[in-house]
Task: inverse folding
């Protein structure tokens, strides 16, 4: 596409089919402890990467 | 739902429900803005009119064919589910946490409700959580670990954070509990990930050696510049702690080979210009950084004001620029809230369910009481039960189970909802009286941070 570049992202609609294993880190536990935000969490399911 | 913004010379388009991120030129940026509101023939007329008005300003010639071509691309992205993706998650959102089936995977162990610092801005009232000073016994901690294993179902990775107060004031129990957990994890097919949050005063070689063997992460509290840190982080004699903790943190981090730690600061009304503190941390040799807005009531002197928020938002931009500059110089650093993995990040279940407080994640007091998270400890109405009898307040837990980004009415039209998951339940409770409320200043800052984080990531990918 001439005017639009689409970055490589995880498709959230697709992740509804294969996500939800629950092995990922608890959002608040590692560094902030005062604000939720799941954006910086890593998915632990290797096949999605 | 689509959000568009400009950052560091990029035009960025976010498609909320697919998670897609597009970087577009000026023409596509305008066309995407017009697309949902106008018919295609009107869009073409509007664009040609606008372009005619701007002619002579040195911009490229724009033809009807150019516009039609770009509109075709937009239609294609829409049909692929990467732009203007409808929100279809709401009906199932309430069931997402049920998938966890009552499993608990993380505990915050309040190993010490006491502290050797007397910071007036502490959300935990100097480690006491508005209660009595106490430390957790080995027996209580051991029962908490047994409770976690017993309730963790098939989850393999279990997280335990040693928190306080100051956990190093009960260091022997921390070590005993880690040894106990390591001794039983294999037979239960579990992997414990331990973390420790400390103010640093009691760090010594034993702490460093043990933590570097056993803790997957350590969080070291430092507010940045000496005068900023020592404003609040003082001992009971009123003496600042900066000069005592900085050399200990440097030694600790060096021994960890600079990995798996965070220097974690708090900024307040005294330093909304917190990038100066980030620069100080960098000058001290630290590269894994986290800096958080203070949790304070609106009448507290340290609380951020409306004026501060504007400064803080500018500071997030300045921080992103600093990261770009250092990246170019081959001296990159990490800022916790700008870490984002667009292709390997969380699935939709996580994005809707949020942090898991009160369901997958709980805090344990020195007496073995269970609370939804560390920030609810001391709110007696929020006591969920204890580590011997389990959940004895199922109604309260149900509130947390049924709370997700779609149960918060104010999140419905927010483009950032699947990045923040509705935000922190404790912040919402303290700001609105309900965990289904929101904390608007927190939302404003979150949106700014995620814009900066995505822009930084986009630059990497382009």
Result:
């Amino acid at each position: 596409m001439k005017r639009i570049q689409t970055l490589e992202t995880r498709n959230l609609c697709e992740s509804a089919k294969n996500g939800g294993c629950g092995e990922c880190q608890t959002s608040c536990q590692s560094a902030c402890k005062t604000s939720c935000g799941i954006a910086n969490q890593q998915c632990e399911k290797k096949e999605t990467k | 739902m689509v959000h568009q913004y400009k950052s560091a010379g990029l035009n960025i388009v976010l498609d909320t429900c697919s998670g897609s991120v597009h970087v577009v030129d000026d023409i596509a940026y305008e066309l995407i803005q017009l697309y949902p509101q106008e018919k295609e023939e009107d869009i073409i007329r509007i664009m040609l009119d606008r372009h005619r008005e701007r002619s002579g300003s040195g911009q490229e010639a724009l033809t009807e064919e150019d516009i039609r071509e770009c509109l075709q691309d937009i239609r294609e992205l829409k049909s692929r589910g990467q732009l203007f993706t409808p929100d279809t998650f709401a009906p199932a959102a309430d069931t997402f946490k049920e998938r966890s089936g009552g499993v608990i995977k993380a505990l915050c162990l309040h190993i010490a409700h006491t502290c050797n610092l007397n910071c007036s801005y502490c959300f935990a009232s100097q480690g006491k959580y508005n209660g009595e000073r106490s430390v957790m016994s080995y027996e209580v901690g051991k029962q908490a670990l047994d409770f976690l294993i017993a309730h963790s179902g098939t989850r393999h990775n279990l997280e335990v954070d040693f928190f306080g107060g100051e956990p190093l004031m009960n260091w022997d129990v921390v070590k005993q509990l880690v040894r106990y957990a390591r001794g039983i994890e294999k037979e239960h097919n579990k992997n414990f990930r331990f973390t420790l949050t400390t103010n640093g005063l009691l760090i010594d070689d034993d702490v460093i050696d043990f933590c570097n063997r056993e803790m997957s992460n350590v969080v070291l509290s430092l507010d940045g510049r000496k005068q900023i840190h020592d404003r609040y982080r003082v001992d009971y004699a009123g003496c600042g702690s900066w000069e005592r903790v900085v050399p200990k943190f440097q030694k600790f981090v060096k021994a960890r080979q600079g990995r798996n730690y965070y220097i974690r600061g708090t900024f307040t009304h005294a330093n909304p210009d917190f990038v100066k503190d980030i620069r100080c941390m960098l000058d001290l040799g630290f590269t894994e950084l986290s800096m958080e807005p203070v949790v304070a009531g609106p009448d507290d002197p340290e609380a951020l004001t409306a004026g501060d928020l504007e400064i803080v938002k500018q500071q997030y931009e300045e921080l992103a620029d600093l990261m770009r500059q250092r990246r170019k110089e081959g001296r990159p650093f990490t800022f916790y809230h700008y870490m984002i993995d667009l292709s390997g990040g969380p699935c939709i279940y996580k994005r809707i369910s949020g942090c898991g407080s009160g369901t997958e994640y709980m805090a344990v007091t020195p007496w073995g009481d269970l609370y939804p998270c560390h920030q609810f400890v001391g709110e007696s109405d929020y006591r969920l039960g204890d580590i011997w009898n389990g959940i004895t307040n199922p109604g309260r837990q149900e509130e947390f189970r049924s709370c997700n980004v779609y149960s918060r009415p104010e999140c419905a039209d927010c483009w950032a909802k699947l990045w923040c998951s509705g935000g922190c339940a404790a912040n919402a409770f303290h700001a609105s009286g309900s965990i289904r409320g929101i904390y608007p200043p927190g939302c404003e800052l979150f949106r700014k941070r995620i814009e900066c984080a995505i822009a930084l990531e986009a630059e990497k990918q382009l």
Remarks:
- Chain A touches chain B through 44 residues (CB under 8 Å).
